[in-house]
Amino acid sequence: MAIKSLNKRQSALAKSEKQLQILSNGIFQNGELPTFKAKISETNQFPLQAKKLEILQINLGYMCNQVCAHCHVDAGPDRKEIMTRDTMQQCLEVIKTTGAHTLDLTGGAPEMNPDFRWFVEEAAKAGIKDFIVRSNLTIIRANKKYHDLPDFFKKHQVHVVSSMPHWTRGKTDKQRGDGVFDQSIKALQELNAVGYGIPNSDLKLDLVYNPSGAFLPGDQAAMEKDFKKALKEDFDIDFHQLFAITNLPIARFLDYLIASENYEDYMYALVEAYNPAAVKNVMCTNTLSISWDGYLYDCDFNQMLELPINSKVKHISEYNEALLEGRNIAISQHCYGCTAGAGSSCQGVVA
Ligand code: SF4
Ligand code: SF4
């Protein structure tokens, strides 16, 4: 059966307050498990504070051609929240002056925003060192108007980062929908054909792995080896790095955990795998996330939970990098997903 977004299903979990309630109540309220705040306080790491900005992550909208089972954005074709050109213009003013070395465009499927190409063309002119677009791959094959995306990415020297939950059809389609594996393979071959992902190529193509169930990812380096071997042998596909990320217990993954009666066990697993050394490198300490409507958040996960930023500066129109530095990061129990094992973020292992 096709998956629908929480929004489309009118699920109670479509509301961020409901998700935050679940994350704060039950096993965390009755003291069975320590809150994230209590845990990081044990090693004097509370409050978590933002350091110098290195990564500006912009969410161009929640619309997506896919409806993956574990999407933390609750993205899908029914989501109509997309960034306007006016807000993009405000982002461009910031991109031109920021000290950040990485610009990271995400969604949904960012390519579905009608102003995506204009924005990439304008943003590329700022010459930010690492310009990432998070592409779900299937969008390249979804419609004729997207078929030239590999050439477009190449023209603007964009670094492509794409989700690929597994090198087998069964596991990939289970998480991301029927037919996703075959279309993703074709898209990867098309990216390879224009030079992406080839050893020593400057056209960077990285893949992101996230577990297909209520378990934590294995060793990133070992998985990268397995992915490379399988994709090369089976489909002659090359890529550069594999990032292994932990699913955070929010949005559709939280819904899945609750529906499969795995929520408590998963939270226990996250807390047991807590690694104090990973705390200092969590994504929010060097990243700022901008939502489709221009509001600022500590990370993409906090954006989805609508956890407001602790700063006078709330919106891209009033951006001030110096004022944002040193702010206290807004946290809740979902943060355990960033500090489990070696720790993980949108960029893979952090510790
Ligand atoms: S995980 Fe990515 S590709 Fe899948 S529905 Fe969410 S935004 Fe779309
Ligand atoms: S979920 Fe966000 S705020 Fe929490 S630790 Fe991870 S990056 Fe930081």
Commentary on this structure:
This protein has 351 residues and is of the alpha/beta class. It has a single domain (12-349), classed as Aldolase class I (TIM Barrel). The chain is 35% helix and 11% strand. The chain has helices spanning 6-9, 16-24, 36-41, 85-97, 116-124, 138-142, 149-155, 169-176, 180-193, 220-235, 251-259, 263-272, 276-279, 300-304, 321-324; strands at residues 55-59, 102-106, 130-134, 159-163, 205-209, 242-244, 287-290, 296-297, 344-345, 348-349. Strands 6-5-4-3-2-1-7-8 form an eight-stranded mixed β-sheet. A two-stranded antiparallel sheet has the order 9-10. Helix 10 (220-235) links the parallel strand 5 and strand 6. The longest helix has 16 residues, at 220-235. It is globular, with a radius of gyration of 19 Å. The mean pLDDT is 94. The site of one iron/sulfur cluster has 12 residues, from helix 14.
